[in-house]
Amino acid sequence: MRAFLVCVLGLGVLTGCGPTPDEAPTDGDAVRERAEQAQTARRRTGAEIQSRVMNRVIRTVYLCNNSERLSVDFDNPRQMATVRDSSGKAVDLYQERAADGIWYRASGYELRGVGAMATWTADGREPTECRAVD
């Protein structure tokens, strides 16, 4: 017990020693400028946005009229989409050429849409309308 007490007292002395941290300024032009920079998003050009979207995987969640929830990973470099339904079942779809919006399909499954709206067709079931929420 005595050794424990010595350790605790020694630790208290060690943490109490040393330089005190400098206080951060809370007012003035420098602080105001940093706050404005933190709140101002860098504006990207259309080409930068398109390049970013086309070269990465994007996850979107859809809520459908039949109460189904779909999680879709759009893998743009590989021109594929992986659709996971509410039960966790995953289906890989391949990108098709669409006049407008998205179109992915494979063996009885299809995801088609424009903007936030999409139609999900699962093998053997009626198509259902879905809305992107994420």
Automatic annotation (TrEMBL):
Record keywords: Lipoprotein, Membrane, Palmitate, Signal
Signal peptide from the UniProt entry: none
Superkingdom as given in the UniProt entry: Bacteria
C-type lysozyme inhibitor domain location: 62-128
Annotated protein name in UniProt: Membrane-bound lysozyme-inhibitor of c-type lysozyme
Taxonomic classification: Bacteria, Pseudomonadati, Pseudomonadota, Alphaproteobacteria, Caulobacterales
